[in-house]
Amino acid sequence: MNDATNPNSPGQSGLQRLRRLPINATLLAPLLALLILFVLSSFASEYFLNARNITNVLRQVSYTGIIAIGMTFVIIAGGIDLSVGSMVALVGVLLLYVVNAIADPIQAVLLGMLAAVVAGSLFGLFNGLLVTRGRMAAFVVTLATMSIFRSLALYLTDAGEVTTRNPLFSSIGGGYLFGIPIPVWAFFGLALAAHVLLAHTPFGRHVCAVGANSQVARYSGIRVERVVLSTFIIAGICVGLSAIMLSSRLNSVSPSDAGYFYELDAIAAVVIGGTALSGGRGSVWGTVIGALILGIINNMLNLTGVSPYLQGLVKGAVILLAVLLQYRRTG
Amino acid sequence: MTITRVLKQAALATALAGTSLAAIADDYHIGVTVPSADHGWTAGLLWWAQRATEDLAEKYDDVTFTVLSASSGTAQVSDVEDLMIRDIDALVILPHNPATLQQVISEAYESGIYTVVVDRELEEPSQDVFLAGDNPGLGEVAARYMAEELGGEGDILVLEGPSIPINTQRVEAFNAVMADYPGINILDSQTTDWNPQQALSVTEDLLGSNSQVDAIWAGDDDVLIAALRAVEENERDDVQLIVGGGGSQRVIEMIRDDHPVVRGTVTYPPNMIASAIALAVHGVKGEQLGNMYHGVPSRVILAADLITADNVEDFYEPDAAY
Known about the structure:
The complex is a heterodimer. Chain A is an all-alpha fold. Chain A has a single domain (26-330), classed as Orthogonal Bundle (ABC transporter involved in vitamin B12 uptake, BtuC), CATH 1.10.3470. Helix content of chain A is 72%, strand content 2%. Mean pLDDT of chain A is 89; it is low at 1-12. Chain B is elongated and about 60 Å long.
C-alpha cells in the first residue's frame, strides 16, 4: 500500500491527490468497475438495493470469496490451485461425518469445524508437497488432486447427499450477527487477516518475491519451498472455512455438487481483483472486490430476468471488461 | 419518478436482453427454477418451462413468470433467494439435489410462497404440491414391454443411471418384473450416469464381453441413442431391441419411422415442468382443477406411458428440445 506518501505540497495535481488516498492504482480499476456495476444494477432492478438482497448477495459471494482469498496467496506466489472446488466437497463430507458421529450437539459442531480446517490444511499440505518436493507444476498437481478429491467424496458417500440432524449446525452458515449473515463476517474477517498477512508481514513480502522471481528470492535468502508450501496450506484452510459455511448454510453436502466450478469463480475473482496470473503482485482487497463483482453480476441477471441461456455470455463479457479496464488503468 | 422509470428501462434495454419487466402491474408473479441443460432431458426441461410460461402468460394477463436455470445445487439456492427478493407468489422448482435445496425451499414455503416441487422429493416435505413422473412405473412398463417383445426369452443388458434414488427405483422395479420371466437372463447391469459418451464406451465394453445379446434396456433415451451407435458400429445383428426411457423427440421420430431396433420407449416427460407451472397458476389463485370438488392435489404422479408405433403421434412434438 501507499505507506511512503510524500508530504503535502501546494501544487499537487488531481492525480497526485488521488494517489494519496489509501488505495493503490491496481485497486482503483476493480473498485471503479464495482461502483459502475453497483449503480447500473440499482437502476436495472428495483429490488437490487433491498437490504435483504444485499445481505443475500454478500452471503452468496462469501463461499467462493473465502476460497478466492486463499487462491490469491497461491497465485501471487506463482502457483495455481485447481483442486479447491473438489476439496470443498471432500472437506464438507468429512465435516458432516464428524458432526454426525458425536452425540453432544455443541461438541459435534466445534469438533466438526476443527476437523474441516485441519482436513483442509492437510489437503493443502499434500498439494504443496507435490509441488515443492515432487517438483511438478502446480497446474498439473492440482488438476490431478481435483479429480482425486472429488472421487474420494463420491466414493465415501456413494454419490448420495449427506445431511445432519444436528440442531445447531445450520445456525452457523444460516445465522445472522447484528443483521449480517455469519458467512459474511467470516469472509470479511478473513479478508482483513489475510490483508495484514500479505501486506504487512515479512511472509507477505516473501510470497510476492517468490512469485516475482523465485531465483532472485532464493539468492536473497528466502526459503522458497517453504513459502510455496505455506500458500497451498493457506488455500486449504480457506477451503475448510468455506466448506463449514456452505455445508452449514445448506445443512447438507452433495459430493457431486458442492464446490462445483468454485476453482474457476475463485480464479476469476482473483484476476478481476488485479492480481497478476503470472504472480509477483496482487492484493486481498482486490480479490474481495472481484468476488463482489461476480456476485453482483449473477444477482443482477437473476433479478432482471435475463434469458437463462444468455447469462453466461453476460457474465463472461463483464469479466473481460473488468480485466480490460484494469490493464488500461495500470498498464 | 418518470425519469427514473425511463432510465431504468433504457438501462435494461441497452445492457440486457431482458425478458420480463412488466412485473409492476401484475397480480401474480411465479418463479421457476430448473437445473441447467447438462443432458438432453434437462435441456427439454428448460425448453418446456419457457414454452409453458409463454403460453400461460398469453392466456392469463394477471400472471408473470421468471425462469432461471442453475448449473449446480448451490447456484440454485442463490436463484431461489433471488426469486424471493423479487416477491414471487409461487415457486416451481425442480431441485438439483433435494438435500442441498431443502433449507431454502423450506424458507420459501414458510414465508407463504405457493411452492411446487417437481421430480425430486424433499426429505422433509415443504411444499403445496409435489409433482413427478412414475419412476418405478418406468422400470415396470419397460420390463413388461421387453419381456413381451422377446417372447419371454433372451439375454439382456441393463444400462443404469447415476446412483440416485430415482435410478434405484426404476432398476428395482425392472428387475422385479423380470424375476417373473425365468427365460430372461440379465447379463450385466452397469451405470452410464445418463451421459451419452459414457454410455457409448460402457455399451462397447459390454458388447465386447458378451457375444450374444438379444436386447438392451437403456433407461434413458440419450443413452439409447449412444447404445444404438455402439451396436451399429460393432455390427451386432444379434441385438433385436433397445428400449429407452424419457420420451425424447429423436427416439419418438425413430419409432414413428419404424426403426427395426428402436420400437418402444417409456415416458418420463420433461414437460412435467410445464404441468407443474400450470398447476402453480391454479394453486396460487386458489382455483379448482376442472370439475374437481377440491383444490390442487398435494401429490401428482404422471403416468409412465409406453410409446410404440400405435400411439406415437400423440407424443410427437417436432420443435421440442428433447
